[in-house]
């Protein structure tokens, strides 16, 4: 704890905008955030994270929900939520929980993990208080992919000019974002950077997860992402169809005598657009195939079990 306090007093993150490189989340905190995001449905939710700093890592040990007003496109913390945060942290200190507030999380139902303009402003305000990060969870893609779709981000100071390849994208800049969100997605990508996300499990986490598994294992085995997330799958296919139609219109709009250099640049942009459409379609296919495979495995498993002779059967 003395080393952690020494690092806090030095404030190295104020000198280096890229100081923090990783967010390490406890299993229970991750479970709480994912369940909260899923409970919001198509509405965004918001919560607070507790933890501490260790070198260039932010360690998240717990998470709590915040009473906020959410819509399908944004979530805003009002005075009630701010008052709730202050009171909760005071009570936590009184009960011996010494971890500080270290970040906030919210959901992007169906449109990926990145920061919008409002998210960027919220994170900038929060970072003025100390080491802070923003986590985004996509509950719909979590169900489809079979793993938690999560991203962690920190914003840059206002006077900092970042290089290329910042923001919530992969190395090639690809992320499947709906057309309605595309403008907001690209408008602020240079104002923040992504952190690596890892997980850890304490002995207490192990006991809690075991208790949860003993209670919910039947529901886990009997559920199928094909049924649970069918609305999201339909939206994904409709969104893909709109992008294909847009690409076709752009291709048909070509014609007439044009500058060769301009034509080559336009063809390159069109090819890049088609490449991303193919990546998005391949992702949808892979998720649907994974769901079908899981259903088939469960069917074979339980059919084989039901075919076994019962204990009451006697051979005469």
Describe this structure in words.
Helices cover 52% and strands 17% of the residues. The protein is an alpha/beta fold and 316 residues long. It has 2 domains: 215 residues, Cytidine Deaminase, domain 2 (3-Layer(aba) Sandwich); 81 residues. The longest helix has 48 residues. It has a 7-stranded mixed β-barrel. A two-stranded antiparallel sheet has the order 4-5. GO terms for molecular function: metal ion binding; metallopeptidase activity.
Write a concise synopsis of the structure shown.
The protein is of the alpha/beta class. The chain contains eleven helices and nine strands.
User: What topology, given as strand order, has the largest sheet?
Assistant: 1-3-2-6-7-8-9
Q: Roughly what is the average pLDDT, rounded to an integer?
A: 80
What is the 3D shape? globular
Q: C-alpha Rg, in Å?
A: 23 Å
Please state roughly what percent of the residues sit in beta strands, choosing from under 5%, 5-15%, 15-25%, 25-35%, 35-45% or over 45%. Answer: 15-25%
Low-confidence stretches: none
CATH superfamily of the largest domain: Cytidine Deaminase, domain 2
Largest sheet: 7 strands, mixed, barrel
Number of helices: 11
CATH topology of the largest domain: Cytidine Deaminase, domain 2
* Distance between the ends: 71 Å
Specify the structural class.
alpha/beta
Number of domains: 2
Order of helices and strands: HHEHEEEEHEHEHEHEHHHH
CATH architecture type of the largest domain: 3-Layer(aba) Sandwich
Assign a percent range to the helix content.
40-55%
CATH class call of the largest domain:
Alpha Beta
């Amino acid at each position: 704890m003395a080393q952690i306090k020494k690092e806090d007093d030095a404030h190295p993150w104020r000198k280096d905008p890229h100081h923090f490189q990783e967010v390490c989340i406890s299993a229970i905190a991750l479970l709480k955030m994912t369940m909260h995001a899923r409970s919001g449905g198509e509405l965004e939710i918001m919560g607070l994270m507790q933890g501490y700093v260790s070198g260039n890592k932010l360690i998240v040990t717990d998470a709590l929900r915040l009473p906020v007003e959410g819509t399908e496109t944004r979530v805003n913390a009002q005075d009630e939520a701010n008052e709730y945060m202050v009171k909760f942290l005071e009570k936590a200190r009184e009960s011996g929980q010494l971890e500080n507030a270290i970040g906030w999380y919210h959901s992007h139902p169906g449109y990926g993990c990145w920061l919008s303009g409002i998210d960027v402003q919220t994170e900038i305000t929060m970072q003025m208080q100390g080491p802070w990060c923003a986590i985004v969870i996509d509950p719909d893609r979590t169900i489809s992919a079979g793993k938690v779709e999560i991203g962690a981000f920190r914003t840059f100071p206002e006077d900092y000019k970042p290089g290329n390849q910042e923001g919530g994208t992969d190395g090639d800049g690809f992320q499947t974002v709906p057309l309605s969100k595309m403008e907001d997605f690209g408008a602020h990508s240079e104002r923040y950077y992504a952190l690596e996300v890892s997980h850890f499990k304490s002995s207490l986490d192990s006991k809690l997860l075991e208790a949860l598994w003993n209670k919910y294992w039947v529901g886990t085995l009997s559920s199928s992402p094909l049924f649970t997330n069918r609305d999201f799958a339909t939206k994904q296919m409709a969104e893909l169809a709109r992008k294909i139609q847009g690409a076709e219109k752009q291709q048909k709009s070509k014609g007439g005598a044009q500058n060769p250099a301009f034509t080559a640049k336009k063809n390159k942009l069109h090819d890049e657009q088609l490449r991303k459409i193919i990546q998005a379609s391949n992702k949808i296919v892979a998720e649907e195939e994974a769901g079908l495979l899981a259903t088939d495995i469960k069917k074979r498993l339980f059919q084989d079990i039901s075919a076994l002779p019962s204990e009451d059967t006697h051979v005469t």
